[in-house]
Structure formats: structure tokens, C-alpha cells
Amino acid sequence: MIEEPTNTQRKIIHIDMDAFYASVEQRDFPEYRGKPIVVGGKPDSRGVVATASYEARVYGIKSAMSCNKAYQLCPTAIFVYPRFDAYVTVSKGIREIFSRYTDLIEPLSLDEAYLDVTEDKLGIGSAIDIARSIKDAIKNELNLTASAGVSINKFVAKIASDMNKPDGLTFIGPSKIKAFMEKLPVEKFFGIGKVTAARMKAMQINTGADLKKLREEQLVAQFGKSGRFYYKVVRGIDERPVRANRASKSVGAEDTLKEDTNDAGIMHSLLQEISVTVADRLQKHQLKGKTVTLKIKFADFRQITRSRSFATTINESNIIYKEAIKLLDEAEIGTTEVRLLGITLSRFYDDLPFDTREVSQLSFDF
């Protein structure tokens, strides 16, 4: 029998769409169904994989992998360019389904969100039943599948949603959290990337149980402020609320050059294209921002960013472009060859009325 959280605890659902971009492509184009699909670009391009269908993943293809590498792993895969307008439209449909059950919705991206259903609008009561109903609605109305994690806090719910993909529903109740956290590999913890995980493993910290042996001050000394979060969450404590009006952090776009280059003319041309894309997305969502950030990834995969803020908010492509050029010049890359360029605008809303604010993070490759 599945255990439910008590009335004094939050009921949190994390919904994560299954292979979202690839699934939309397979839904919209019947000839793609049942076949390995890679969304991100052509195999002979310098692009990266945005997502891959489950048929492609069995070959070892993963997000952020180069399209060229993906082609080597599966030459029979079908490579398609992203259709972000289509994904945004579907995402709005998913959000409408969420809103039937709660107004406490915190989107993380187009394809995932936290929901607080402690007090659900339909009076269902059971977070598990709500998650199941949401999954059914997504399947029946949008012809897509989602996986759901249910627990008493955001951290555990997010981990749970990834446990039985695709089309999964996993509940981790209060009495199971302690054992769950102790067995969890450290690389699964929020904020622990490859570098931090390697540091931990060098310290013989491989699981939550190992992490739990360290005092809070030891974790802070080793890992900074994140150490406080690790100390709490490994004990099943995550007090972060679901933020219903979470604002966009950034709007951006990036592109990989056809060949590594330090040619200023080629880079300026690409930055002009990216500036137009970013401006279009800002204007589409009625957003303006104060901070322009230029991202530069070099041929050796080293990456730097340069930023500058304006006194007022902007969303015009010519202004974004001119600022990106200045930031590129100031970066003084010299003879170092560049692989990728990106532009992001952030610090929204200072001069905007509340009803024009967008709540989802919008940052895409193209």
C-alpha cells in the first residue's frame, strides 16, 4: 500500500516530460515514431544534442553530446533541428493542465515544473492521485508522456521523477526518505556536478550516508555555502517553497561555429544573427533586461563569460549586438580559436508592469 504524507507536511510533485523535444517531433511526424531521433542539428554540423528519443538513447546518445559523436554512435539516427515555437506551444498546454490542480506552479524549463498540491483546487487530497491525473491528462490531451515524482519536499520529488522513466510515477514518503538519502550517490545531489563529485569521492564521500558523517562546519569549509544545503538535504530537510511567480532568469541563444576560428568578421556575423534571435524572443515574451552577457567557448572547450549592465532595460537587437561586440573585443582572445558564441539578457522587470512578466526560463540553443 502506498503511504501518503501527513497533513502537516507539504505535498510536492515534480513533473518531467519524457524526452520532450524528441517526443514532440515523434508525435507531430508519424514517420519518426519508433525510430532514433536526435534533436539539435545535422550530424556533420558542430551542433550539440538538445535531446534524443529513447530509441536513440540505447546507443549511448545523451543531451549536450556533439551531433557528430551522436552520428558515430548511431549512423541510422534521424537528425532534426529544434522547433522551439512548437515546444513553447506544447509547454503552455502542459501548464494549463497543471493549473487545474494548483496555482503553486514553479516551472524550471519548458518541460519540467514543481507543483505544491498541499491544498489542491479540486479537493482530491492525494498527491499521488493528482500526479496520476496530470499524467493521464498530458497523455490523453497532448499525446505525450511525463514522469512524476511525489514527496514532501522539492529535492526528493525531483530525484523521484527520474527513477522510473519514461512514463513513471514514484512516491517517496516520509518514512522512506532517511534510507533513500543515505543510499543516494553524491552525484545525484542538487548542486553537485562532476568536479564536486570527484572531490567528494577523493574524500571517500560516495553516498549520502558518507556525506552524513560530516558536521555542517566541515561541509561549509570544504564546499562553501552549498555545504549547508548538503547538511540539511541529506537529512531529508529541504525548506525551499514552490515559487508560483518565479521569474525568468535569462533569455538567450548560442551557436557553434562551423569551424573553430579567431576571425573577427566571422564572429561578428554570428553575433549579429544571435542578437536578432535573442531580441525576437525577448519581444515575443514582452521582456526587457538590463544585463547583456557574452559566452565564449574555445576550441579546447574552456569557457568564459563577459557581462555589462545598462541603466535601463533593453530588448533591441542592434543594441544587444553592439554590446556583444564590445564584450568580445574586451575579452582579448587574440589568436585563440573560438568554438561557440552565445548572448544572454537578464535582470528583467525593473521597468515592466507585473502582468507582462514571464514565469518560465527561456534560454535555447539554435
Automatic annotation (TrEMBL):
<dbReference type="InterPro" id="IPR043128">
    <property type="entry name" value="Rev_trsase/Diguanyl_cyclase"/>
</dbReference>
<feature type="binding site">
    <location>
        <position position="111"/>
    </location>
    <ligand>
        <name>Mg(2+)</name>
    </ligand>
</feature>
<dbReference type="GO" id="GO:0003684">
    <property type="term" value="F:damaged DNA binding"/>
</dbReference>
<dbReference type="InterPro" id="IPR036775">
    <property type="entry name" value="DNA_pol_Y-fam_lit_finger_sf"/>
</dbReference>
<keyword id="KW-0548">Nucleotidyltransferase</keyword>
<dbReference type="GO" id="GO:0006281">
    <property type="term" value="P:DNA repair"/>
</dbReference>
<dbReference type="InterPro" id="IPR001126">
    <property type="entry name" value="UmuC"/>
</dbReference>
<keyword id="KW-0479">Metal-binding</keyword>
<dbReference type="GO" id="GO:0000287">
    <property type="term" value="F:magnesium ion binding"/>
</dbReference>
<comment type="subunit">
    <text>Monomer.</text>
</comment>
<dbReference type="Pfam" id="PF11798">
    <property type="entry name" value="IMS_HHH"/>
</dbReference>
<dbReference type="GO" id="GO:0003887">
    <property type="term" value="F:DNA-directed DNA polymerase activity"/>
</dbReference>
<dbReference type="GO" id="GO:0006261">
    <property type="term" value="P:DNA-templated DNA replication"/>
</dbReference>
<keyword id="KW-0235">DNA replication</keyword>
<keyword id="KW-0460">Magnesium</keyword>
<feature type="active site">
    <location>
        <position position="112"/>
    </location>
</feature>
<keyword id="KW-0515">Mutator protein</keyword>
<keyword id="KW-0238">DNA-binding</keyword>
<dbReference type="InterPro" id="IPR022880">
    <property type="entry name" value="DNApol_IV"/>
</dbReference>
<dbReference type="InterPro" id="IPR024728">
    <property type="entry name" value="PolY_HhH_motif"/>
</dbReference>
<dbReference type="InterPro" id="IPR050116">
    <property type="entry name" value="DNA_polymerase-Y"/>
</dbReference>
<feature type="site" description="Substrate discrimination">
    <location>
        <position position="21"/>
    </location>
</feature>
<dbReference type="GO" id="GO:0042276">
    <property type="term" value="P:error-prone translesion synthesis"/>
</dbReference>
<keyword id="KW-0239">DNA-directed DNA polymerase</keyword>
<keyword id="KW-0963">Cytoplasm</keyword>
<feature type="binding site">
    <location>
        <position position="16"/>
    </location>
    <ligand>
        <name>Mg(2+)</name>
    </ligand>
</feature>
<keyword id="KW-0227">DNA damage</keyword>
<dbReference type="GO" id="GO:0009432">
    <property type="term" value="P:SOS response"/>
</dbReference>
<keyword id="KW-0808">Transferase</keyword>
<dbReference type="Pfam" id="PF11799">
    <property type="entry name" value="IMS_C"/>
</dbReference>
<keyword id="KW-0234">DNA repair</keyword>
<dbReference type="Pfam" id="PF00817">
    <property type="entry name" value="IMS"/>
</dbReference>
<dbReference type="GO" id="GO:0005829">
    <property type="term" value="C:cytosol"/>
</dbReference>
<dbReference type="InterPro" id="IPR017961">
    <property type="entry name" value="DNA_pol_Y-fam_little_finger"/>
</dbReference>
<comment type="similarity">
    <text>Belongs to the DNA polymerase type-Y family.</text>
</comment>
<dbReference type="InterPro" id="IPR043502">
    <property type="entry name" value="DNA/RNA_pol_sf"/>
</dbReference>
<protein>
    <recommendedName>
        <fullName>DNA polymerase IV</fullName>
        <ecNumber>2.7.7.7</ecNumber>
    </recommendedName>
</protein>
<feature type="domain" description="UmuC">
    <location>
        <begin position="12"/>
        <end position="193"/>
    </location>
</feature>
<comment type="function">
    <text>Poorly processive, error-prone DNA polymerase involved in untargeted mutagenesis. Copies undamaged DNA at stalled replication forks, which arise in vivo from mismatched or misaligned primer ends. These misaligned primers can be extended by PolIV. Exhibits no 3'-5' exonuclease (proofreading) activity. May be involved in translesional synthesis, in conjunction with the beta clamp from PolIII.</text>
</comment>
